[in-house]
From TrEMBL:
<dbReference type="Pfam" id="PF13440">
    <property type="entry name" value="Polysacc_synt_3"/>
</dbReference>
<feature type="transmembrane region" description="Helical">
    <location>
        <begin position="195"/>
        <end position="213"/>
    </location>
</feature>
<keyword id="KW-0472">Membrane</keyword>
<feature type="transmembrane region" description="Helical">
    <location>
        <begin position="168"/>
        <end position="189"/>
    </location>
</feature>
<feature type="transmembrane region" description="Helical">
    <location>
        <begin position="371"/>
        <end position="393"/>
    </location>
</feature>
<feature type="transmembrane region" description="Helical">
    <location>
        <begin position="436"/>
        <end position="456"/>
    </location>
</feature>
<keyword id="KW-1133">Transmembrane helix</keyword>
<feature type="transmembrane region" description="Helical">
    <location>
        <begin position="129"/>
        <end position="148"/>
    </location>
</feature>
<comment type="similarity">
    <text>Belongs to the polysaccharide synthase family.</text>
</comment>
<feature type="transmembrane region" description="Helical">
    <location>
        <begin position="97"/>
        <end position="123"/>
    </location>
</feature>
<feature type="transmembrane region" description="Helical">
    <location>
        <begin position="468"/>
        <end position="489"/>
    </location>
</feature>
<feature type="transmembrane region" description="Helical">
    <location>
        <begin position="31"/>
        <end position="53"/>
    </location>
</feature>
<feature type="transmembrane region" description="Helical">
    <location>
        <begin position="308"/>
        <end position="328"/>
    </location>
</feature>
<dbReference type="InterPro" id="IPR050833">
    <property type="entry name" value="Poly_Biosynth_Transport"/>
</dbReference>
<protein>
    <submittedName>
        <fullName>Lipopolysaccharide biosynthesis protein</fullName>
    </submittedName>
</protein>
<feature type="region of interest" description="Disordered">
    <location>
        <begin position="1"/>
        <end position="23"/>
    </location>
</feature>
<feature type="transmembrane region" description="Helical">
    <location>
        <begin position="340"/>
        <end position="359"/>
    </location>
</feature>
Length: 511
């Protein structure tokens, strides 16, 4: 926790060397899952309802505008969160300087983003983008005010506080978005949802965070964070480009409808990766940072986190792929054809399960430069690949265009993950790649079996059921299949389950 100094400033307790307390890491992982499960659960419900009320065009416009805003947010952040979380010794002066710079820069970057909105609209040949981008520009200001307090909570593994903030914001913004969509607000229902989510999150964050900035800003302290931040910022821009190149070029070449189909198809598996693997990602940086001087322990902890991410992430993606057909039918005819890109992007999510933890691992071990090189390579390859696809598929239907982008993304992710695993596990941590991957094999088998369930059950007429009933049947059969395979093939899963089952007390001897 943070400690108040005699002068009234707040100093963060230094990170202790050696492994973190198991109870604290376990609690952080638990609250991280609560945080992400609650947010994703509410987001799934809200996304489904909004998709039924709206359509691909509105979702596409929002996705294209959010890409532009994300670029501005990435420029603003400049790797400050990673620098604060990873730094071994952090004082109140560091936090004060970072907060002052980010708060001031937030207004400047937001104003610049608003001014450049017509340029983004012109690039995408979509006049509606200008006003939507201007309306979303305050998200940059809000982020500038939130970065430091959130980083303080994450550094101290206080994920209970982060969970409260995220859940409240998701629930309130979801209610606002659905109410406006029912009232016929169209795209503005989605815009309002984003703004309310960020604003409520900011207010709750400052309520739950114990740290407060002082009135004095010592800009000399920012230089001590700058070296790491510069590398992390470089990596952050590369990650942003590699993660958003698909949406950028889908919008530029194919327009809002294809972008909306692709965004919804990508969002569903991405939310599952959020609740399963990115929950671990939030814990990975602070917990692995404490092991940066013990490579053997570092590699063992990273392998353990990857195994946990695989057993909770891969099977649910297989189940989602199995339910793609009836799920799209349930959303309505405006989303017809989305089931194929959804299945492709479930495969992308499965590949991404093996890449989510590698970035925090490289940052934790003090090598963000390697992460930057990998991210920029992936981003530039993505730019070239998606630009070629955009040229070749300009005359296709929107669902086929979204599918082509998804297939290309899977191929790129396979190549980049292979390189990233080698660099992180073998070169940086000095561990065996085979030992890192082998524990996840049962999860791969379970996910594959779940995804193939429709080929078996459709012969029994399940494909003729109403969409909602089809989702339930496919999901139940796929989930049970994956669970049975995991239980029989993964001894670590059995150990985890048995560890959490209540132990039976021996019967008292009869008198």
């Amino acid at each position: 926790m943070t400690n108040a100094s005699p002068s009234g400033t707040v100093e963060a307790a230094p990170v202790q060397s050696g492994p973190p307390p198991k109870s604290k890491v376990g609690s952080a992982i638990g609250w991280s899952y609560v945080l992400t499960a609650g947010r994703v659960g509410s987001s799934v419900v809200v996304t489904f309802l909004l998709a039924m009320l709206l359509g691909p065009d509105e979702f596409g416009i929002l996705a294209m505008a959010l890409v532009f805003v994300t670029i501005a947010q990435t420029i603003l952040q400049q790797g400050r969160v990673s620098a604060i979380v990873q730094r071994a010794k952090l004082t109140g002066a560091h936090l004060d300087a970072a907060f002052g710079v980010l708060a001031i820069a937030g207004f400047g970057v937001a104003a610049l983003a608003a001014a450049l909105s017509p340029v983004w609209s012109l690039i995408n040949r979509e006049p509606r983008l200008t006003v939507v981008c201007v309306a979303l520009a305050p998200l940059v200001v809000i982020q500038g005010l939130a970065i430091v307090p959130e980083a303080v909570l994450r550094r101290e593994l206080q994920f209970r506080a982060v969970a409260i903030r995220t859940l409240v914001a998701a629930l309130v913004s979801g209610v606002v978005g659905i109410a406006l969509a029912l009232a016929g607000a169209g795209i503005w229902a989605l815009v309002a949802q984003q703004l309310v989510n960020a604003l409520i999150g900011l207010v709750v964050l400052w309520v739950v965070c114990p740290w407060r900035p002082s009135r004095r800003i010592r800009f000399g302290a920012i230089r001590e964070l700058w070296t790491f931040s510069l590398h992390s910022a470089n990596a952050g821009l590369g990650v942003m480009l590699s993660n958003r190149a698909d949406l950028i070029f889908t919008g530029i070449f194919f327009g809002p409808i294809a972008t909306g189909i692709y965004r919804l198809a990508a969002r569903l598996p991405d939310m599952l990766v959020d609740v399963t693997v990115r929950s671990l990602q939030q814990v990975a940086l602070p917990s692995l940072s404490r092991l940066q001087n013990d490579r053997a322990a570092f590699a063992a902890h990273l392998t353990q986190l990857q195994h946990l991410g695989a057993i909770v992430g891969l099977p649910v993606l297989g189940v989602l792929a199995a339910t793609a057909g009836p799920l799209v039918g349930f959303l309505g005819p405006q989303w017809a054809g989305t089931e194929v890109p959804l299945q492709v992007l479930c495969l992308f999510g499965a590949v991404n399960v093996y890449g989510v933890l590698l970035g925090p691992a490289l940052q934790a071990i003090g090598q963000p430069g390697k992460l930057a090189a990998i991210s920029w390579t992936r981003g530039l390859l993505g730019v070239a690949t998606f630009a070629v696809l955009g040229t070749l598929f300009t005359s296709g239907n929107p669902a086929a265009q979204a599918t082509a982008i998804g297939i290309a993304g899977v191929g790129l992710q396979v190549v980049v993950n292979a390189v990233s695993i080698w660099v992180t596990v073998r070169r940086a941590a000095g561990a065996s790649v085979l030992r890192f991957l082998l524990p996840t094999l049962p999860a791969v088998v379970a996910a594959t079996a779940a995804a193939l369930v429709p080929y078996a059950v459709n012969r029994l007429g399940v494909d003729e059921l109403p969409p909602l009933a089809g989702v339930v049947v496919m999901g139940a059969v796929g989930g049970l299949t994956a669970a049975a395979i995991l239980w029989t093939t993964d001894r670590r899963v059995r150990a985890l389950v048995r560890k959490r089952l209540p132990r039976r007390r021996p019967l008292a001897p009869a008198q």
